Task: structure prediction
Amino acid sequence: MPLILQGARQVGKSWLLQEFGKQYYDNVVHINLETNKSAHDLFDGDLTPSRIITYLESLTSQTIFPEKTLLILDEIQACPRALTSLKSFTEEAPQYHIAAAGSLLGVAIHREDFSYPVGKVIEMRLYPLDFEEWLMALGQASLLEQIQIHFWTNEKMPTPLHEVALEWWRKYLVVGGMPAAVNEFIQSGSLPLVAEVQNRILNEYISDMAKYAQGSTAIKVRACYQSIPAQLAKENKKFQYKVVQNGGSSTIFGESIEWLTNAGVVLKCRLVEQGRIPLPAYMSLSDFKLYLSDVGLLTMLSNMPQSLILSPTIMDNSFMGAITENYVAQELAAHGHPLFYWKNSNTAELDFVLQKGEHIIPIEVKKGLHVQAKSLNQYRITYHPELSIRLSQKNFGQEQDIKSVPLYALCCV
Result:
């Protein structure tokens, strides 16, 4: 079946598919349906695979060989008929290998003119680089190996190694995982130049909101997106419409929140009122938090000084808690975990709860070395989990059934 690779703009979908094609196919035929408007006409009318292949070969002056050519239909959300044609290829011509990529496909498929080939495609989602991939990209594979070993043995990292890992983690909070930003950091080592790349990406996101959101929705989408730093700066990080606009409500901004979520530029973390299996059964439909899909972009959007994040002594800054939580949300999402947080009827609120098999794992997030965890203790008293995780800048350790995990080792959870 054809592959559809979804993800926010600039996460590296096109590059990854072309690199995959170079390694495993004799040739690659790449068509960007957002910039190549003439290709749209090829999908009008009859969607017989042989007809489409013939026309694409003529358009690109390349031969598309069955099983030996990777045909990439990039930004497929720009051409609804191209998306519909994937069903025909699955049913009538599976010998042609097709990969499609879509930056705003999640937004597009909610429009009435889209016919999604349900059950006829393989779907995957690409996220920004997580911290594990960041270390590999920066040539720190040996450090990553040590982190993994100490996570599974639960032995403390040697202090110098622990401090080095924290230093890399702080840099990740600034650079984030957007491939262009990571590549700039690898090539130049200049954080100001990284900030320029991040600013360009944010401007592209804002441009997409104006271009693809309908009518007045574009203004609301932009307002919701730009309010996220203020939302996360609150002690109660639940998304509040009144922070976007006085008198704001779900009626006014609900569609905008869904646009941002479907575009993949924000991550929605939903409230669960009970720590029981299955978590979605206890999910609130109205209460949620929003995080940016990339922690580096949050740093940029919030105008948080890079020097403060890089300083190991600045953890008394309250917004560092928001940045740290965003990092955790991004890591969990990249590893395929739906995002949930727990709150009881009183004041206890747990940052994340994770369902793994038959177990619910509560996760408390601390930005620094202070690890007093009243909400985690309240959760443990209520639900008696076999394992609880406390993320902080402290070294590995174990206290009763609470596993202390350094923030840089979250990828191992």
The chain is about 45% helix and 20% strand. The mean pLDDT is 93. The longest strand covers residues 283-292.
